[in-house]
Amino acid sequence: MAHEFPVRVYYEDTDLAGFVYHANYLRFIERGRTEALTEAGIDQRALKAEAGIVFAVRRMDCDWFAPAFLLDRLRVVTALGALGGASAELDQRIWRGADCLFRARVTVVAIGANGRATRIPEAARAALAALGPTEGTDDTGV
To answer: Which residues form a coiled coil (predicted)?
Structure first.
């Protein structure tokens, strides 16, 4: 099941034009990913301490569809797109009500203590798989 994380837009998130500054969408989805993994049962501190494994962003493909503004209430929706041996592709969208403002396809890779890609442990794989796919949307993010 996809994970939802609420975000309110603050003054510090906006630019001179009054729109949410483009880089802040990446901050919003980072928080959404962290919350999704935590609520799915992945303790990233324990994963690092016990297995020497951390997740690193390898690739991002982003689309901005419409701006967000000061005091908007947004939802960051995170779902699993694909799960590989050492990587996961996450589909993340930012919504204001029924309007999709932003979409990112984010590939994260499990990195071992040696700095190389390593297989995602089974417990973490099961937790990621539980995020499930995004439903009811097409490839344009709407």
So the answer is: none
